[in-house]
Structure formats: structure tokens, C-alpha cells
Amino acid sequence: MPRVGAVAAVDAAAVHHNGGMSADRPAPALPAPLAPLVDAHTHLDACGATDAAGVKEIVDRAAGVGVGRVVTVADDLDAARFAVDAAHWDDRVFAAVAIHPTRADVLDEATRREIEHLAGDPRVVAVGETGLDYFWPGKLDGCAEVDEQIEGFRWHIDLAKRLGKTLMIHNRDADADVLRVLREEGAPETVVFHCFSSGPETARECIDAGYVLSFAGTVSFKNAKALREAAPLVPPGQLLLETDAPFLTPHPFRGAPNEPYCLPYTARALAELRGEDAEELARAATSTAERVYGWGQLRD
Predict the structure, then answer these.
(1) CA–CA separation, 10 and 16 (whole Å)
(2) 85 in a labelled binding site
(3) Which Pfam families does this one have (predicted)?
């Protein structure tokens, strides 16, 4: 999802799930700690961080409740540069870089070269968020058209494979085409569907393909019926937890500003939905994150 303040920005995820922020809502209280946790997809720049001190403040707050690592994700070139910087400022932060599908029309040769250069940084653990967003074309001035999005998605898939990086997918109203393009191009070894929001049928297709499904605060929304039916189907080894902060704050704080420290709320909501112990779910999701992002290799 785009950064706060981006021109013609589409808070795609927030609007998608009717989970946007309200200036009238105070930040959620600190949750009871739950460890170990990894925020598999967040946007530290959109949370307000502009420098190393700001990154440290946000990550310290998260660490205080058990969130030991975060992946900060880009949606445009400026955000990609910031994400890589943030990952070098703080060893608890890792980066994912790409051009968001709604902005795929800006993927000229110069932009592709810089994204590829940034993606090669050792602190970058994924190419993303990329994919397809079929909600906004024709509704938002400046939004990339479907054919531009598909071309950009194919390029990002190829980039992830060439670099041996995880592919992080944004999918909005495009289940069939996202899966089709992955089949046509040949998916990278590891594919993550960030903020998974589809129903059981798509979940089963992703599970069968070996893809990893990452759940955000939307899984706690009682009206997200199809998503809540899908979430219990996912094996522990194919499940991640994320905030997608500063958006998609979990119930009962929906509409308040989100941050990585809020992840325990989502973890507990998902554990309750799945009939699991929250600590066991946290450990399983963290183990999956370590595999998906190659952190076992970093500790060797």
C-alpha cells in the first residue's frame, strides 16, 4: 500500500478492507507481550519514521511487546530507498522493495535499474509489494491500467527469481489473474501473499502451490467472513503475521493508527479463530518468517 502523503496515493489495503485510519482515533494501548513475533510486512515510513531515530523508536516499542523483527516494505522508489536505509540503520529491520501495482506505469528503464540495484542489497529479503490491483483502474486518476500492472508483475517475478529473493504479493480483486501469471512465469521458490484477504477457494489453491499466506488485522474483522473461513485452513508452515501498519489496525481498534507493536492483537485474534494457543501460533509464524526471509542463514 502507498506511503502516507503520496500524490494521488491509494491507501489500497485500507480502502480494500474498510480499515483506514481516522485522525479522531487514539493509538491503541500497548498489548500484553507475546513472543516471539515477526512483523512480516509493515511500512515504517508511513508510520512516521524519517530517520534512524524514528525507526528505532517504532522498533523499540514493538520489541517491548515481543515483536523482535520487522520487514518494512516499499511501494514506490522513494519508499524503496528509505526501506533499504532503515534496514541498515537498525539490525532488527529488513526491507522489501518494488513498485506497487497501482503505480506500475512508472516502471521505465531507469526505475527498473534502481529497483534491481536496491533489491540486490543483502538487507533486502523480498521483492514486493508487487502483484495486481483490479479495484482502482478506471476509478483513480493516474492508476496504472491492468495491462501495465501485469507487465510490471511479470518483471518483478523475474527479478525475484534472478536474485533468489522471496516474492511479496499485493492482490486486490485479482485472484485468478495473480495465480495465472505466477503459473505462466514460473513462481520463485518462495511466494508470500501479503495481507491475504481472499476466501477458502483461493487459500486452498495457494496452499497447494506451496505459497505462504500472511495475515493482518483484517482477520479480526467480524464482517470479513470469507477471510475468516480461509484462515483456519492454512498450515502453520505457510502462515505469517503482519500489521501492514499504519493501516488495518485490528479489532477493537479499527480505524486507529497501527504500528508494529499492535501485532500481538492480531496474533491472538487469529489464534482464537484457529482454535490454537497464541504462543504456539507466534512460534510457528516466526519459524516460517525465518525460513521465508532467510534469517537462519544470517545467524549461521
Answers:
(1) 10
(2) no
(3) TatD_DNase (PF01026)
DSSP codes joined into one string, 10-65: --HHHHHTT----TTSPPPPPPPP--SEEEEEE-TTTTT--SHHHHHHHHHHHHTT
CB neighbours of 78 closer than 8 A, spacing ≥ 6? Answer: 3
156 labeled binding residue: no
Task: Give the tens place of pLDDT for each residue, 30-70.
Answer: 999 999 999 999 999 999 999 999 999 999 999 999 999 99
Is 129 annotated to bind a ligand? Reply is yes
Q: Which domains does the chain have, with CATH numbers?
A: 36-295 (3.20.20.140)
117 is in an annotated binding site: no
The string of pLDDT tens digits covering residues 234-276 is 999 999 999 999 999 999 999 999 999 999 999 999 999 999 9
Q: Does 133 show up as a binding residue in the annotation?
A: no
The per-residue pLDDT for 23 is 57
Contact criterion met (CB below 8 Å) for 63 and 94: no
pLDDT tens digits, one per residue of 77-88 = 999 999 999 999
Angle between helical axes of 52-63 and 77-89 (0-180°, round to 10): 70
**pLDDT for position 22:** 58
Q: Kindly list the distances between the CA atom of residue 183 and the CA atoms of 160, 187, 252, 271, 290, in Å, as whole numbers in the listed order.
A: 15, 6, 38, 31, 25
Residue 287 identity (one-letter amino acid): S
Task: Say whether 88 counts as a known binding-site residue.
Answer: no
Eight-state DSSP code of residue 253: S
Give the closest residue to 168 by CA, choosing from 78, 260, 100, 246: 100
Report how far residue 124's alpha carbon sits from residue 114's, in angstroms, rounded to the nearest whole number.
13
* Residues listed for the chain: 300
Which three three-digit cell numbers place residue 1? 500500500
